[in-house]
Design goal:
432 residues; 7-stranded mixed beta sheet; 17% strand; binds pyridoxal-5'-phosphate
């Protein structure tokens, strides 16, 4: 049996956020089943990452596999210009049914970053069609919205190194870091900064963009639902469009189907990605209201100016339809609540007083341990793999967000391995 050539890989293939001159080790995965990744040498790892928020039902799921195979034999791809197909129509129908009721126009693209680009362009074109050239967006500190230039420009300036790109990035506005966590006591002055920014700048703004409740790759932070409510109110008062990026939070991860349900609000534009296909194929959707869509379409351009080659890919749509049908019975909710309770028992309680940690927090199927120091990526990864789990920290954050079908025992192995690491006498080996 052929071996994956790791030397070739490290010499020639970029991995996410890595160096070509000093690449970090990569582990060769041969197959994956349920919540387990099989390495080439036969070792099994319990997946604590859901392949970055994407995998919900586990790997190699028979219903998912069947749906994709069936579509493969019909048509795997066809251009979307002037052509449509059943998987796309079914998916749009399903999304319109289950997403906030004001959203009824769907744009299907191929990744989360592109969904964000599309959302920003929709909002920009909306104002342009109304005869106004508005050039700025209000975003949040610690935001993450993707890696393409438009998306990067609304990411936290420090995390995404805006200074590196200089004048090449548009100069958007960023709200101060929020001060009230998800389950802390709300006080109205916590939104004063937002009100100030709106007062001074609302006429420049074509949109506000936010990850609702959970900020992901920009720091795994959970904020208070009222903060989001205030954003909605400020947008309503001024006509600025509210874009919610639910690419990470959508499809149940935070305990609600969409994270914006925690605040009981609806966006003008919604971005979905990651778990949209249950983690099987790359696909994103940007949804908006009839009002926004018609305003754009009646503007000077007469159309929305975007159209990716693989738009509405039938295989990806078939995967999304299968994933949504698996979510239909509502079982996910029980699973996420079970995982949340277990993460609270097995992470929050034992780690509260641990000297190495800054904070530990849990929401839905997300458990975050924020360390005082950044991890030594190579060492800590090796420790996890030796202990049969796949947990991939970044900077000071070690977090667990398992597929919803993870069993009690499997989750205990993930939390137990993490807690044991933090209790080791030689813990300093694993941080920088
Ligand atoms: C991952 C992510 C994106 C980018 O999605 P890609 O598919 O990686 O381009 C955008 N926004 C949020 C909140 C994300 O978590």
């Amino acid at each position: 049996m052929s071996k994956i050539d790791l030397a070739f890989d490290s010499k020639h293939i970029w991995h996410p956020y890595t160096s070509m001159s000093e690449p970090l080790p990569c582990y060769p995965v041969k197959s994956a089943n349920g919540v387990k990744l099989q390495l080439e040498d036969g070792q099994e790892l319990i997946d604590g990452m859901s392949s970055w928020w994407a995998v919900l039902h586990g790997y190699n799921h028979p219903v998912m596999n069947e749906a994709i195979k069936a579509q493969l034999e019909q048509v795997s791809h066809v251009m979307f210009g002037g052509i449509t197909h059943q998987p796309a129509v079914d998916l749009a129908q399903k999304l319109i049914d289950i997403m906030p009721s004001n959203l009824e126009c769907v744009f299907l693209a191929d990744s989360g970053s592109v969904a964000v680009e599309v959302a920003l362009k929709m909002a920009f074109q909306y104002w342009h069609a109304k005869g106004e050239f508005r050039h700025r967006v209000l975003s949040l500190s610690h935001a993450y919205h993707g890696d393409t230039f438009g998306a990067m420009a609304v990411c936290d300036p420090a995390n995404s190194m805006h200074s590196l790109y200089g004048d090449y990035l548009p100069n958007h506005l960023f709200a101060d870091t929020f001060t009230v966590g998800f389950d802390e006591a709300w006080h109205d002055s916590a939104a004063d900064n937002l009100r100030e920014l709106f007062k001074t700048h609302h006429q420049e703004l074509f949109a506000v963009i936010a990850e609702p409740i959970v900020q992901g790759a920009g720091g795994m932070r959970f904020y208070h639902p009222n903060y989001l409510k205030v954003l909605r109110e400020l947008c309503d008062e001024t006509g600025v469009l509210l874009i919610l990026d639910e690419i990470a939070t959508g499809f149940g991860r935070t305990g609600k189907f969409l994270a914006c349900e925690h605040a009981g609000i609806e966006p003008d534009i919604l971005c979905l990605g990651k778990a949209l296909t249950g983690g099987y194929l790359t696909l994103s959707a940007t949804l908006t209201t009839r009002h926004v869509a018609e305003t754009i379409s009646n503007g000077e351009a007469k159309c929305f100016m975007h159209g990716p080659t693989f738009m509405g890919n039938p295989l990806a749509c078939a995967a999304a339809n299968a994933s949504l049908s698996l979510l239909d019975n509502g079982q996910w909710q029980e699973n996420v609540h079970r995982i949340e309770a277990q993460l609270k028992r097995e992470l929050l309680a034992p780690l509260k007083k641990n000297p190495h940690i800054q904070d530990v927090r849990v929401l839905g199927a997300i458990g975050v341990v924020e360390l005082k120091q950044s991890v030594n990526q190579a060492h800590i990864q090796e420790y996890f793999v030796e202990n049969g789990v796949w947990i991939r920290p970044f900077n000071k954050l070690v977090y667990i967000m398992p597929p919803f079908v993870t069993s009690k025992e499997e989750l205990s192995q993930l939390t137990g391995t993490l807690v044991k690491l933090l209790q080791r006498d030689d813990f300093s080996k694993f941080v920088l």
